[in-house]
Amino acid sequence: MRKIGITTTVPVEVIYAAGCIPVDINNIFITGEHPQQKVEAAEIAGYPRNVCGWIKGLYTTILEEKDIREVIAVTQGDCTNTHALMETLELQGVKTIPFAFPFDRDKDLLRLQIEKLMAYFEVDWEQVLIVKKRLDAIRKKVWEIDRLTWEENRVSGFDNHLFQVNCSDFKGEPESFDREISQFLERACHAPELKQDVRLGFIGVPPIISGLYHYLESIGARVVFNEIQRQFTMPFETDDLVEQYRLYTYPYHVLNRIEDIKREIKRRNLDGLIHYTQSFCFRQIEDLIFRQELDVPILTLEGDKPAQLDARSKMRIDAFVEMLRWNK
Questions:
Q1: What keywords were assigned to this record (predicted)?
Q2: pLDDT by residue (tens digit) across 239-250?
Q3: Is 0.85 topped by the overall pTM?
Q4: What's the pLDDT tens digit per position in 66-105?
Q5: Rounded CA gap, 300 and 291, in Å?
Q6: Cα separation of 253 and 102, whole Å?
Q7: Which among 24, 32, 124, 122 is positioned nearest to 71, based on CA atoms?
Q8: φ and ψ at residue 6, rounded to 5 degrees
Q9: Staple partner for 22: which of 154, 169, 259, 290, CB 3.0–4.6 Å?
């Protein structure tokens, strides 16, 4: 089957309706072998040192995946470096398909973008909505994993992250992913309650560094809210596909994200937030907005390239968690 690369969450219902397989390049880059070497390979090819590690990893990964010759690139609502990524990929013979989330969440413009994507893949609304119904059933099961994380304390922050982040492409095999979720839920429902006393939220893009969730739990803290990953599950009850992607907060104005974060801080009884920022990403600027608008302690962590959580970050996390514990 024809594989379509994606570099962030897009209406995958359209891709599946066409009988194609969406592949989230981020996930195969960061979980593949030697992600650090992929970043270095892009730098050797000419990518500047001061460009986001995710973009460089995506570039090399796409070129290595020989069965992916088409990539949907989000030109508005994601990374500002995507334009150059598209251009360099086209130089290497990869076809890029542009998709844009309108900054003001205009429903007509968003519908137009989705219908342009449908025209490219030669599918109609009836086909797309059949797929939406199938994927929504899977999404609801992942919502239950999220609920078991924050309400019953039976799921780790990393498992919460992992299942939600995979909703960007459903691992390319929705039925298989559905079975995996069902098996996990069966175990999680009977798992013992986790006892970490400090409850954290993780906001920002998924981290390029590894070991963060496990380290937090080793010192008595646990992430019970993964902001962007949760958005990948489309946590909204609607039969309208356009409205679904309009309610999705990540691609639009940061104030929409703040509304969602404030609601979840209260609902999940969070003690503090970790704001993850990616080196050389424009979203680092949003840190000052979060600090001004959110009324809970925030620790900002920055990651550059794929690597284990470093000693300096561990020391800062230790101090932050201890401060939160002291204030409880």
A1: Iron, Iron-sulfur, Metal-binding
A2: 999 999 999 999
A3: yes
A4: 999 999 989 887 777 888 999 999 999 999 999 999 989 9
A5: 10
A6: 10
A7: 24
A8: -130, 145
A9: 169
